[in-house]
Amino acid sequence: MKPVKIRKNYYKFSFEKFDEFWGTIVSRLSKSFDKKTKNEIKFHCKRVLSIDELINLEDEKRLKYDVAQYFFHDIGNQLQDLESKDLSVPFFEKSDIIVLDTDKRFRFLFINKDKLLKIDDGEIKIEIPYKNNGFFSPELEDVEVLPTKISYKSGIFSLASMCTSLLNNKEITKEMIEKGFYWKTYTTGEEDHLSSKVLLLDLIDETKLFFALERCLNIHTEDRHYFFI
Length: 229
Description:
The chain has 229 residues and is an alpha+beta fold. It has one domain: Orthogonal Bundle (Transferase(Phosphotransferase), domain 1), CATH 1.10.510. The chain has helices at 20-29, 51-56, 65-83, 138-141, 154-166, 174-179, 208-216; strands spanning 4-7, 10-14, 33-36, 40-44, 47-50, 87-88, 97-101, 106-110, 117-118, 123-126, 148-151.
């Protein structure tokens, strides 16, 4: 549900009932938040953009490092807030997310409440078929029979996959896969636990965001974690 503009630099979300999901929106709004009622959340920002509109502001048609870090931080923290309430998402799409242009920086919000699934014993139940948008986790790609259950960590893989894509304007090629981590001066030779999507991160190698994304792009769910070091 997208916000409605009330007047210049002032917006609101409207809903039937304030619940745990909308609580995560308030938490993520930070200083932009103004007030809430039983049916509305009001906040300040200069404008509301889509992901594609934000990308089109850039000459290279990709997110700069700092903005990509804000994206990963904001949506990742909102996802963790949801997980603390036993809720998660199977995967992300660009349309799930809006961008708030605030005085300090761009802020990102996940707004697709309809995609939330209940976490039960570390898993979420997939009951409907989804069209693969390129941001699926390995376990979601492997779903053949419905209903089925997959790890609740599918969402953080998808988040990292989308962030990796937003940092680039290129696709993974067979040549890139064959070269592997060609930009590194050394490799351990034990990268089989990582998705090939990591190969698109050469521009940010050895950065804080690189290692954060790498942890989330682990194909083994038990070793997949969202955090910055």
